[in-house]
Amino acid sequence: MSSRAGEVQRLVLAILPLYIPILWVAYSTNKKLNLSKRLIEEYTHKEVLSKTYEGLSEQISNLDNSKASKELRAKLLYNILEVSSENPGKLISNYDKSDHPLMDALEKSVQLTNAVDKLDKIPGLSKIATYLDKKTDKLLATESFKAEKGIEMVEKAKATEKLET
């Protein structure tokens, strides 16, 4: 059975170089897509502000009272400048990070490793971690043994079925 594991490892190592460029393209494309979404939101916001200013400015110019019209136009211009100075893109955070599930899983695994390393430095926790690691290894060995026995039984059943036919 260990030769199968070695074959699987060699196969994974042989295929891995083919997938790395694909993963990189997916990651960088996702970052660019997020940035593009942010830019679209920013320019849409500016377009809406421009149309609002034009519409309100036209309504103000239709007023009969020229003094009130001038005051309203000044307030409108002040308010539009104030609102346009705020960047709506600030609401879109982490646009430079990919939201691809694989990249998220890799990032979380790195964070988990860092957290375990930090916990390992706390006195007493290293013994607990060692105990849990041994228990996990024992459980994995048991389950691996059961899986191998199950595979052997299936292979024997197939071989017996072939002999009977």
Please report the distance between the alpha carbons of the first and last residues: 28 Å
How many beta strands in the DSSP annotation? 0
Q: Strand pairing plus helix content: what structural class?
A: mainly alpha
Order of helices and strands: HHHH
> How would a textbook summarize the main sheet?
none
What proportion strand? under 5%
Range of helix content: over 70%
Low-confidence stretches: none
Number of helices: 4
Question: How would you concisely characterize the structure shown here?
Answer:
This protein is an all-alpha fold. It is 85% helix and 0% strand. The protein contains four helices and no strands.
Comma- or semicolon-separated keywords:
single chain; 165 residues; mainly alpha; 0% strand; elongated
Task: Write up this protein.
The chain has 165 residues and is mainly α. It has a domain at 2-95. 85% of the residues lie in helices and 0% in strands. The chain has helices at 2-61, 66-85, 101-120, 125-164. Helix 1 (2-61) packs antiparallel against helix 2.
Write the layout of secondary structure elements.
Layout (H helix, E strand, L loop, with lengths): L1 H60 L4 H20 L15 H20 L4 H40 L1
Helix pairs in contact: 1-2
